[in-house]
Design goal:
Shape of chain A: globular
Order of helices and strands of chain A: EHEHHEHEEEEHEHEHEHEEHHH
Strand content of chain A: 15-25%
Oligomer: homodimer
Distance between the termini of chain A: 22 Å
Number of strands of chain A: 12
Number of helices of chain A: 11
Helix content of chain A: 40-55%
Largest sheet of chain A: 10 strands, mixed
Strand order of the largest sheet of chain A: 2-1-3-12-11-4-5-10-8-9
Bound molecules: 3-isopropylmalic acid
């Protein structure tokens, strides 16, 4: 079976790390058909549209999409692309790697972020000169779908359970519905949960990240708390993510376009290649996924390293070293 | 002139640290009239109401309120009390003290949090079995009032300017209005600003807190980001806060009721006493405010210390040491 993969490098270092991930995938004994498409600032400049319809359609039909990064137009690109793959959960591991400088080296977390609603429902109004409103939406159905995924996830990965992070002491109806629904599904499924207020989580994860493990949260909470965890492991540079839908998924590094180094061929491809490893797992190639993940980890620990990690290797030096270690 | 001060110890260690702060204030040569009132879990248990009307009325008429902490009923107590003093800004310094174990010892931040609207406007609906909504409100007037305060604050404290933290790439109308209004006022006032997305702030403040200084943000962003900063300085235990309104203000430590140690008389009174120092400054007693702040800092550095900081002193040992150093 051939997997059709949409490849959307986007802007900046997206143009460097995405081909690096494709090279790693091509070195495996798996049938891929890669189809490239454009998105981001550059195509907006050229055509007026940050996300051309054909890119949207491609992501909506391919088995999986590899996305790089977008600049100013990030929200205009990534939010519709998540919709294109009908992604209801954003899976964000935040793990400190041996040998990499981290504020909290014991951090090893996975965020399962609701990916369709909350403040991202995007219903805003400027009612008067003085007043603007945004309607935050929470549904039982989306909370339930996320919870089922979370239960599968902890069962498959042999985690003990998960923590629900929310702000239901203030957002009583909406985060209350989220919390209650997720906890109910977990109870039906026999999965253990505990809960924490998102503000308390922010304090406690700094003090002792090892007390948390898998964290399930609403959309914006997941955005902010996973970026916080990124800070604890030493930056966005090494974090992968998966936007998973029922029939397809999109994989992206958490980092941005890094305009300061874009074009210099020294971008660290690790996060994008780990994102590709998540895609391998998603497509059913667990063994190859683990091999790629292990090769990246060995390379992070032993080099070669790009300048962001104190080395002087190029993107392709690192990519080749990872391929050699497979 | 006598200052009328409402004293609302609340639950748990609020009952221990609030009298400690009052003792420190009584040791100064300033005329206070302290009037005590109840709020929290215990009074709810006894009367059915977490915040009795007379406590609300007292806070709404006193010159300032010293609040301790509340347990399960925290939101039912603190949100109406903020309203009682018409507080439009929550001032939250997060500073690492010499001699105290901190994840990021170089942290020295002040959050100026919008204190009336955003998701805290509290407009929620359960539309159907499946759907709940919350209306997030942003007004130009509240943003403007906060911005004026922020400009006064940086001028008085000789800061260079402030950073606006927001999520206007997703909440375009609401956080867009907030950001644009705050930036406009600052420009009119000749105060420098820069801006950062709240998720990016969460990453960058872990990596390098010294790059930030005064941070102005919407209500929930301020809640989460200041609690994150609390984690970086070693916990909520040392953080004070001021809820400032046009004519009165309420001062509270950021910590909770600490049920595990409540009643043992070993609660660390530092955050509550620093909150009282903020009150002294608010009431025009800058010199005494600085003296109390300095006495607390010396005591944190040289002891005696409560068990949370590795010592074996009691609340009153620490309080007496602070008074002795005045
Ligand atoms: C670019 C932005 C819209 C996006 C988000 O808020 O989800 C980003 O921060 C992320 O986390 O992928
Ligand atoms: C108790 C809760 C309602 C409150 C808030 O969210 O503002 C608390 O977290 C705080 O920051 O003072």
């Amino acid at each position: 079976m051939t997997h059709e993969i949409a490849v959307v490098p986007g802007d900046g270092i997206g143009q460097e790390v995405t081909p690096a991930a494709v090279e790693v995938l091509e070195s495996l004994d798996i049938d891929f058909e890669f189809v490239e498409a454009e998105a981001g600032d550059a195509v907006k400049e050229a055509t007026g549209e940050a996300l051309p319809q054909e890119t949207y359609d491609l992501a909506a039909s391919a088995d999986a999409t590899l996305f790089g990064a977008a600049g100013e137009t990030a929200a205009d690109v990534i939010l519709p692309l998540r919709e294109a793959v009908d992604s209801f959960v954003n899976v964000r591991p935040a793990k400190a790697y041996p040998g990499i400088d981290a504020v909290r080296p014991e951090t090893d977390l996975v965020f399962l972020r609701e990916n369709t609603e909350g403040v991202y429902a995007g219903i805003e109004d400027r009612l008067t000169e003085d007043v603007a409103t945004l309607t935050r939406v929470t549904t039982q159905s989306a909370s339930r779908r996320l919870a089922e995924f979370a239960c599968d996830y902890v069962e498959d990965s042999e985690h003990d359970g998960f923590t629900i992070a929310h702000k239901a002491n203030v957002m009583r109806e909406t985060d209350g519905l989220f919390r209650d629904t997720v906890a109910e599904v977990a109870e039906e499924r026999g999965v253990e949960t505990d809960e924490v207020l998102m503000d308390a989580f922010a304090t406690h994860v700094c003090l002792d990240p090892a007390q948390f493990d898998v964290v399930v949260c609403p959309n914006l909470a997941g955005d902010v708390l996973s970026d916080l965890a990124a800070g604890l492991v030493g930056g966005l540079g090494l974090l992968p993510s998966a936007n998973v839908g029922p029939d397809r998924a999109l994989f992206e590094p958490v980092h941005g376009t890094a305009p300061d180094i874009a074009g210099d061929e020294v971008a660290n491809p690790a996060a994008k290649i780990i994102s590709a490893a998540m895609m391998l797992d998603y497509l059913g190639h667990e063994e190859e996924s683990e091999a790629v993940q292990a090769a990246v980890e060995t390379t992070l620990a032993e080099g070669p390293r790009t300048p962001d990690l104190g080395g002087d290797a190029s993107t392709s030096d690192v990519t080749n070293a990872i391929i050699d270690r497979l």
